[in-house]
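Anyone able to model this chain together with 5'-deoxyadenosine?
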Amino acid sequence: MNFARQEIIDILKDDSQNNWLFELADKVRRENVGDKVHLRGLIEFSNICKCRCCYCGLRSPNKLIDRYRIEPDDIILYAKKAVEMGYKTIVLQSGEDEFYSRDVMCEIIKGIKELGCALTLSIGERSFEDYKAFKDCGADRYLIRIETTDRQLYKKMHPNMDFDNRVRCLKDLKKLGYEVGTGCLVGLPEQTLESLADDVLFFKEIDADMIGLGPFIAHPQTPLKDSANGNFILALKVMALTRILLKNINIPATTAMETLNPQGRVIALQSGANVVMPNVTLSDFSSKYEIYPDKCSLSDRGEVEKIIKSIGRSVSDDYGFRSR
Ligand code: 5AD
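re: yes, here you go
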């Protein structure tokens, strides 16, 4: 099944066919990546960020959050704990924090790769040389959302950032042989359905291996504090369309989905998603990693497994690379 741009827009506009869309995405998910759900152990290791993204609670002008940074050795210890708990992939995520220079990151990556797991990085825009050094140390995957492909909106949302550099990052990462993840926010102020259709087509064009997306949630300590939250169903539709068009990629049921709907994660798993990313540093830091308010972090692996089994699925025990 392939949709042209106008068909995608029409589907996004019309809510009368939603059940058909979600069921089709679920079928495409089953046929292409099966019933196994991949768990990724998420370590949010620093909430310090030099960026000023208008929607994000970690933006540097936000003086009201308590900033933290986990020491490299402690990051490796958290990863070890997660691998012992059975996680096959560790995801290292942070704000754009220059403390973690190329050399510091390389040491962390080497330490984690010795544990025998797959490693995903999500630490923002870096040079080709940094990305290459991380890859040479064993990093397998990299997440960097494009956030929106609407250039004008991108510019408004990201002071001091450059859309073309973001695309450059994605292309460099692909060139270097990473599995590359990207994605977008759904429901940013002034975002159009047309631009959401372009986002999905962009994911296909760059041949993304993973797509993470969720509704925008207004954070009180950002310039968008008075904006309306994104819509859960619309975000789910964009996710379902992404599954239908990109077929065999990995798609997480994101935390933002659950934040707007208490059943959001399960609904996402039944509408195209096949990945869950429980936080493995939860009790210690996650209340401070507040990208948006009421972020619903999952941490108890047993609890996650129970939820997955309750919908007739099971937890994968392989590394969960993209199935080709
Ligand atoms: N609401 C929803 N998602 C957000 N992100 C950042 N701020 C928000 C928000 N207010 C998402 C961005 C980023 C990811 C880590 O979190 O898409 O890439």
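Residues 18-33 form the longest helix (16 residues).
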